[in-house]
Specification:
Radius of gyration: 19 Å
Structural class: alpha/beta
Mean pLDDT: 96
Largest sheet: 5 strands, parallel
Number of strands: 9
Order of helices and strands: HEHEHEHEHEHEHEHEHHEHH
Strand content: 5-15%
Helix content: 40-55%
Number of helices: 12
Shape: globular
CATH architecture of the largest domain: 3-Layer(aba) Sandwich
Strand order of the largest sheet: 7-6-5-8-9
CATH topology of the largest domain: Rossmann fold
Distance between the termini: 11 Å
CATH class of the largest domain: Alpha Beta
């Protein structure tokens, strides 16, 4: 991996993504093989937004590589308010060997990367969720084998997860269809960048407002919550708008017979997905969640050693 930081999936080439998958699967198969890979190295974990999976997987992941983590809560840092991003970067680069940030505005991680001499890993922003996408496509790779030419359909809000799935699909030659209500499409620049990247691999990146058409022939059907963190005030209104985009048994019938169901979690059962789908044999949601650990270990290993 040539990149110094991991802010979006677009930071990596197809070859670098596949190499990351190879390392992640090697780590998954033999945890002890890498148990001293980052011995004595410290990873700062900056959380402006809470998370079960991000906190657990980065904390355990760095320890399994021989390093250790330092959790920094919003009360301790409050980026850009209590202390400037520049000052935080300049302080931490003298104390730790890597920084993971889970925050709201994407510009915060961009600025942190610009000012810090140690690697910055994006644990989530309002624009991008690259570690999740790496775990998602690692899971598809495990279940389906060769990724090129497969179709992944994302149903729901065209949010940070949708952006990262498009970016990774474009790099890997996976056709990505985003089925969303009018007015909830992915960011225009993100869509254009994904389409541009897709030219090199022949992938198709498309947006549709018809969930049935979007899911037709899909190898994987993916969804996310209708109201993300910070959008709680819009939750009831969004439920009305997104109800036709619920992933249920009827919608899954339009995908391929062996299609898998994916979700970044946490899931609001009964809203974006029914119990019958998320608990079905087609669901790989907990395999995805586990693969956050392995994908992120591979990313830390490449950036921090």
């Amino acid at each position: 991996m040539k990149a110094k930081d991991f802010l979006t999936v677009r930071d990596l080439s197809q070859e670098e993504i596949l190499e990351t998958f190879r390392i992640a699967l090697d780590m998954k198969a033999d945890r002890m093989k890498y148990s001293e890979a980052l011995k004595g190295k410290a990873l700062a974990l900056i959380f402006e937004k809470p998370s079960l999976r991000t906190r657990t997987t980065f904390d355990i992941g760095i320890q399994q590589l021989g390093g250790y983590s330092l959790y920094l809560s919003p009360a301790e840092i409050s980026l850009g308010k209590r202390e400037s991003v520049y000052d935080v970067a300049k302080n931490l680069e003298r104390m730790v060997q890597g920084i993971m940030i889970r925050t709201f505005g994407h510009q915060i991680v961009v600025d942190m990367a610009e000012h810090s001499s140690v690697p910055i890993i994006n644990g989530l922003t309002d624009y991008s969720h690259p570690c999740q996408a790496m775990a998602d496509y690692l899971t598809m790779h495990e279940v389906k084998g060769n990724l090129k030419g497969l179709k992944l359909t994302y149903v729901g809000d065209g949010n940070n997860v949708a952006h990262s799935l498009m970016f990774a699909g474009a790099r890997l030659g996976v056709n990505v269809s985003v089925a969303c209500p009018p007015g909830f499409e992915p960011n225009v620049i993100a869509y254009q960048q994904a389409c541009e990247d897709a030219k090199a691999t022949g992938a198709r990146i498309e947006i549709t407002h018809d969930p049935v058409a979007g899911v037709a022939g899909a190898d994987a059907v993916y969804t996310d919550v209708w109201a993300s963190m910070g959008q709680e005030a819009e939750a009831e209104q969004r439920k009305k708008i997104f109800r036709p985009y619920q992933v249920n048994e009827e919608l899954m019938k339009h995908a391929k017979k062996d299609a898998i169901f994916m979700h970044c979690l946490p899931a609001h059962r009964g809203d974006e997905v029914t119990d019958a789908v998320i608990d079905s044999a087609a669901s790989v949601v907990f395999q995805e969640a586990e693969n956050r650990l392995h994908a992120q270990k591979a990313i830390m290993y490449q950036l921090m050693r």
